[in-house]
Amino acid sequence: DTGVSQDPRHKITKRGQNVTFRCDPISEHNRLYWYRQTLGQGPEFLTYFQNEAQLEKSRLLSDRFSAERPKGSFSTLEIQRTEQGDSAMYLCASSITGVTEAFFGQGTRLTVV
Amino acid sequence: KNEVEQSPQNLTAQEGEFITINCSYSVGISALHWLQQHPGGGIVSLFMLSSGKKKHGRLIATINIQEKHSSLHITASHPRDSAVYICAVPPYSGGGADGLTFGKGTHLIIQP
User: Fold this and answer.
1) CA–CA dist B83, B66 (Å, integer)
2) Which of A41, A56, A101 comes nearest B98 by C-beta?
3) Share of chain A above pLDDT 70, in %
4) In B24-35, which positions are buried (b, 16+ CB within 10 angstroms) versus exposed (e)?
5) How does pLDDT run across B36-71, given as a tens digit for each residue?
6) CB of A45 within 8 Å of any CB in chain B?
7) Residue A78: C-alpha distances to residues A23, A60, A61, A86, A102 (Å)
8) B45 vs A contacts (CB less than 8 Å)
């Protein structure tokens, strides 16, 4: 296992299009987190899963954002009807319940034009 | 909700200098994270600490739980240390990695 993997690394999309990002966590990690980072800022928490259950989603930025982890392994983050303000780095991290250390992926950089 | 303040925001130093980056937070926590982010975005976890001091190579992290303050030190700094260093804490006392709150980061440049 080479760590947390995110795909794609870069995505350019036109305003109004839908985009979906994928995160593959470290295989034995049951927790998976999504964060967003805008230029010059630290990451901000969006949502997290424990196995397939989404335990926190109130911090998703709007109802255009949704995340799934259907089988408790990989996760997807979808943004519908993208806006220019959605341009950011989207980071995924994983950890084991009871262990506070999280491992991060390389991120997906989204540019909405 | 925990508030995190990092200083300085930007730091440029010469190779070999001793570097200190500071982090303060507002709510008592179980553990604090120091992370490193290189251009291109990938984040690497450097330390997770709940008390005292940890050392890894030329990196040293300290935390004072009573004062809600942590520092990251780099000894004998090198240009490859150039990166953004980010402090992160759980949102509430006893919280784990759930929804970490991050500082804005310290952008470090080490010049040869």
Assistant:
1) 29
2) A56
3) 96
4) bbebebebbbbb
5) 998 776 788 898 888 899 999 999 999 998 899 999
6) yes
7) 11, 11, 12, 11, 22
8) 101-104
